[in-house]
Known about the structure:
Elements: E1 10-15, H1 20-28, E2 32-37, E3 51-52, E4 55-56, H2 57-62, E5 66-70, H3 76-87, E6 91-95, H4 108-112, E7 119-124, H5 140-146, E8 152-154, E9 157-159, H6 168-190, E10 194-199, H7 200-207, H8 209-221, H9 228-240, E11 259-264, E12 267-272, H10 276-285, H11 289-294, H12 308-318, H13 323-333, E13 337-339, H14 350-355, E14 358-359, H15 361-364, E15 368-369, E16 374-375, E17 378-379, H16 393-400, H17 405-414
Parallel strand pairs: 1-2, 1-6, 2-5, 6-7, 7-10
Antiparallel strand pairs: 3-4, 8-9, 11-12, 12-13, 14-15, 16-17
Amino acid sequence: MSAEPLSGVRVVEVAMFAPDAVGMHLADLGAEIIKVETPGIGDPARLLAKPYRGEALATWRWNRGKRSVALDLRRPEGAQVFRELVAGAEAVVEGMRPGALERRGLGYEALLEVNPRLVFASVSGWGQDGPYRDLGSHGLAFDSFAGLAQPRRVDGRPARPAGHVWQGIEAAPLYAALGLVSAILRARSSGEPSYIEVGQADAGAVWNGWRIAYEDALARHGPQPDDPDLAELLEALEASAEGAGKSGDADLPGVDVRYQYYAASDGPVLLMATETKFWKNFCQAVGRPDLFERWPGRPPADHDYGNDELRAELAGIFAGRTRAEWVRLFIEADVAGAPVYEGGETAGDPHFEARGLWLESPDHNLRSLGSPVRIDGRTAVSRRRSPRAGSDADYVLREVLGYDDARIAELRRSGALGENP
């Protein structure tokens, strides 16, 4: 088997909580990630929510594939070890509040003195500038800011959405990993260093970019601008944002008809017959060519907004089969669509099982989902489980830095390594 794509790439990570995922993605692709943690507690993500086998599930996921060394960066001895690690690495990931390493004299400019071609990637909540730069936030905050976590009403008061899947904190590490690898390629060819910055709030906003752009245009130009070009732009943006500003209640007019959830006999299914060919194929497959003849739509694609008569016809049709039967029909007749699942239903789907996304306990201490990336037929997931805080000190100091017993003993006496793990 060939080497993993990032084999031979060494990255030093100083991060906590969701920005840990930058290193996780890189480790899954074969990079060596040396995680530098504070002696004692280490990464506070280890204490999130309810622990399992002594640590939070978040750290078993976010820190998989890494090695950990505990260093007190406030001590001169610890800072020096950090500089020597950076000197032999290609990149540093800073996943804390802006300027965290700079306040310790270990910021980007200072580290260029020991590694002139360094790639430095900073992932923070709100980015390196702007009025919210120093606002302490995590998790849901970035989605609520981006309009991705609309409030619901509970007993007449606003409440956070139920069952919300965080997006900003998942998207930001992906952007950072992409930027970091791109910058390493440039550094290898040109020797040029890079400073990469990704804000989790920015990532959430970009994830919701179509809706933000539509509502901005609506606010600036009004719902019916006099300029035909602006009117066309507004209509296009609204379509891209999938009806932003319109009610999502399926019992009201003005909603999608050919791009919509419908109730099958055992749960909802998604019809996505906006393209003319998919709509025609669907009507023929269910023995209703009359629906296509009556409502062919505007080619090449039409959502058929507000066609309540057609929506009622489709509701009756979909009720007659199960979700699995509809998926089989979609495949056989070449119609775009999908099953709609809630709760734990996804894990029981045959396609999910066939894709092999599970990470099993022997490798990673729990059954959880790994990376969706496959390389040469193999899932790109590190086989190294998440380390305990500081557990790889001997490896890092001896094998990576080449320290001898006397140097390591002196570091332990100085307190730079904290307690011996």
